[in-house]
Design a protein that fits this description.
This protein has 5 helices and 36 strands. By secondary structure, it is mainly beta. Strands 3, 4, 6, 7, 8 and 9 form a 6-stranded antiparallel beta sheet that branches. A hairpin with a 2-residue loop joins strand 6 and strand 7. The relative contact order is 0.07.
């Protein structure tokens, strides 16, 4: 493979030793073992390469000459560096080390007996690239720094009972999450656990009305009783923001079954979340009491009289700077005319920061003020407009509306014709039709083309364009063709129908 790069004429070595081995390769026994040693050029040092052409019986160069031709002696010293470079692998970039899982969550004591303690926790948020192998629970006696694992192999359950403990011992407990990437930072119980039997686990019975935000006004007393249970007598701890309570503001009195939280006069600074913990030997129950102390809000800001037109006034303002520690429910707008000087409410519970006041009296001058309102009530002060609104009199000229004259004249026209009817002898029947026209047409009823005049057997009526003819107790003689004819100065119209009077068999 190296013979392709160097021509034979440029070889500086003598020609005799190169040509002699070529015609007589079978007379020398050395070439056979030389072919079995290809790595030989790598082992000799670089100082031995010049002596190779001078010593003809050396088998190694002879084998290379017979296989690759007269060019091999020149390329012989270049082959070892190429093989050395191929043998040395390039350094690969190191893979980033996998992160171990995060700490288990919500480690707590579930139960304590005379010689055991039962723990519970939640799985960690992050398990890393590899799956979780399990958990390792470690204990350490109070006053010592030696942590001992209680389980030989990791387990996947999030509940574990530590057995064979001595009654009266006080131990610290921690739990680690373990995976192929390593172990997590341990989750440790805040307080040591005293190994003794708990007859009843601690539990806070928070009243229902205290599960929501407890709202009181500034100056009111706060007197809250929260019952709990647990045996032996649990330890009761109150905190606010992970800090002990200010005893100059809050008084706490605990009994065997409840705790009383008392503030004589509430202030805005007493608002916040108070944490209650009831604890027995590491087992505890927690509850949060959210108290909000409110007061009336401040007045709205930047009340402006935006526009005055006709009987209307437009107002705008900004919310108050202090909302009284309670959400603003709305605004109350009042007006006062210059003549009386009295204030009247024009708008209540306005939820926007702008409004329009209407129905003002012409010729009066008005001032306006706005109160803010929250759960505690209206603000003590109001925002008052700096200017006044004068409702001017406007001169209006009445112009009668011109109504175009319309020709209402119309010849008679039947909108609903007569329909054929069949009746029974002795049963009265009615014939109906509808007609319109102006002037109102005259109605003429006819039977078989003979006008029906004043006959007590027939009663003809017309109302709102509806024409009716009542035939009282008809007989077979009353059957025939009945015609209703409408006549006015513009024309006439008529409709017909047939009446059959049957005789019952």
């Amino acid at each position: 493979m190296t013979g392709k790069t160097a021509p034979p004429d440029t070889d500086p070595s003598p020609a005799v030793p190169k040509k002699e081995p070529v015609p007589t390769p079978q007379e020398e026994p050395a070439p056979a073992p030389a072919a079995e040693e290809p790595p030989a050029p790598e082992h000799p040092p670089a100082t031995e390469q010049p002596t190779a052409p001078a010593d003809e019986p050396i088998p190694v160069p002879t084998a290379e000459v017979t296989e690759e031709g007269p060019e091999a002696p020149e390329e012989g010293p270049l082959a070892p560096p190429a093989e050395t470079q191929a043998a040395a692998p390039e350094p690969k970039p190191e893979k980033p080390k996998a992160e171990p899982p995060s700490s288990p969550l919500s480690l707590a004591v579930e139960e304590v007996s005379e010689n055991s303690v039962t723990l519970t926790w939640k799985a960690p948020e992050k398990t890393g690239q590899s799956s979780l192998d399990g958990y390792v629970v470690e204990i350490c006696k109070d006053g010592s720094t030696d942590w001992t694992a209680t389980n030989e192999e990791p387990f996947l359950s999030t509940r574990y009972t530590i057995q064979n403990l001595s009654s009266g011992d006080k131990i610290h407990v921690r739990v680690k999450a373990v995976s192929a990437s390593g172990a997590s930072v341990p989750a440790t119980l805040e307080q040591p656990v005293v190994i003794r039997e708990i007859l009843q686990l601690p539990r806070i019975r928070m009243p229902r009305h205290l599960r929501q935000t407890y709202v009181r006004r500034v100056g009111d007393a706060v007197n809250i009783m929260i019952p709990f249970q647990g045996k032996p007598q649990p330890e009761v701890i109150w905190t606010k923001g992970d800090q002990p309570l200010d005893t100059s503001r809050v008084n706490i009195r605990n009994t065997e079954k409840d705790t009383i939280f008392y503030i004589r006069q509430a202030q805005r600074s007493d608002s916040g979340k108070y944490e209650l913990a009831v604890r027995i030997n590491g087992a505890e129950d927690k509850a949060t009491l959210d108290i909000r102390v409110i007061e009336p809000p401040g007045p709205p800001q930047n009340l402006k009289l935006v526009d005055v037109w006709g009987f209307n006034v437009a107002l705008e303002w900004n919310p108050p700077v202090d909302n009284g520690n309670s959400e603003i429910k709305g605004y109350t707008v009042q007006k006062s005319d210059k003549k009386s000087g009295k204030w009247f409410t024009a708008l209540e519970r306005c939820t926007r920061t702008s409004c329009t006041i209407s129905d003002l009296i012409i010729g009066n001058t008005y001032s306006f003020r706005v109160f803010a309102e929250n759960a505690c009530g209206l603000s003590e002060k109001a925002a008052v407009t700096s200017g006044v609104a004068h409702i001017k009199k406007t001169k209006t000229a009445y112009q009668a509306e011109k109504i175009p004259q319309r020709d209402m004249m119309e010849p008679p026209k039947f909108t609903q014709p007569l329909t054929d009817r069949t009746t029974t002898r002795g049963y009265s029947t009615h014939l109906f039709c509808c007609v319109r026209g102006f002037p109102q047409p005259k109605i003429i009823w006819m039977k078989n083309q003979m006008e029906i005049r004043e006959d007590p057997k027939y009663i003809a009526m017309i109302e709102q364009g509806v024409c009716s003819l009542e035939i009282r107790k008809p007989s077979p003689f009353d059957g025939g063709i009945y015609t209703c004819k409408a006549v006015n100065p513009l024309g006439e119209a008529s409709v017909d129908c047939k009446l059959d009077v049957k005789v019952p068999q």
